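The protein record reproduced below.
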Amino acid sequence: MISQALNDQITRIGPNTDAGNVLRHYWQPAALSDELTGGFPVAVNLLGERLALVRSESGAMSLKTRIVPEGEPAAYCPTPQEITIDPTGATYPAHEIKGAVFAYMGPGDPPEFPNFDCFRAPDSHVFAFKGLWRCNWLQALEIGIDPAHASFLHRFLEDEDPSDGYGKQFRDKAAHTDMPMTQVLREYPRPEIQVDETDYGLKITALRHMENDLTHVRVTNQIFPEAICIPMSREMTITQWHVPIDDENCYWFTIFTSFNNPVNKDLMRDQRLKEHRLPDYAPLKNRENNYHYDPAEQETLTYTGMGLDINVHDQWAVEGMGAIQDRRQEHLGRSDVAIIRYRRMLRKAIADLAAARPEDLPMQGRADVAAILGPLSNDAIAPTENWQSASHAADIARRAECPWDASV
């Protein structure tokens, strides 16, 4: 448990807040390229500021302060005709890449983009999407760095044919086996979790020890300050930012990256638009309709009774904590080691900025940010005695067969 003052410090992100200052030192996803239609400014609510995304005649983009229509809620996206740009306000640089527009709202020149797989894969091999969650960004991030939650929150009581699961997480077979991932997660629910600090944040390894001296190795990552990179399947990874709209609402922005085949963008977009509405990308299943909870389904098919889309499971869990989770009453355990390490990293970054040491923030003090590659995000089943080298070898083999330069 932590104090209210500390909880406020690590969750609130408006201008001149401690956590907000840290996030402003990094590029933040502001909009999807799909939203840039008609040549009009696009309303963007980001880090507690009301902004408009504007493209100049030269094609360059920037975020400008906008005058807010009276009564507009924080997460509402008005039509372009309702946007009025304040010429005396702040202007922030923006950069479009791989289906998303990133903005830099911090001091000085923007940092380079790391050379993560999602940024260097060709456009044919990436797909970007987002979704609205009615909760603080930190609890949205923390569910993504908890490897144990998948065995419970995403527990499927029946295993479907993995070949029918394109574009859906946990609808694959575990590498080097015929066992569906849903079965692995269900039958081995208490992983051993190891956390290592990296140039970009944290590497999180979940070890599910199986019979016959085999171990399922699942490597995920926390990319500082508020992103994760996780395996979606052997074919794809998910790089996902948990971006604050304000203190009580956030968007998850995801870039799906395929190692081998081009992504089927139309199918992936259609899959997700069946679960979200436009223009605000709010999920159709939400608190107001009890996330379409079905007790009959809960008895026979899923742990939550809320359908097969795992985003809905996560949404229910993080929104159920309240707009800002009250961490004064929490009791973290052994499986929360990544959450504990991340909070220490965030608090150190806050302290480094307070001491005027921005170069000590992850990825901020190096001249070769573009040399940060990867990261490794995959699952594999390996002999327990050499799981580490076998997991690394599985990633290298996948990259060697890749039609684009995925070498590390």
Q: What stands out?
A: DSSP finds ten helices and 19 strands in the chain. The chain has two domains: 4-24+112-400, 27-110. The CA atoms of residues 356 and 366 lie 16 Å apart.
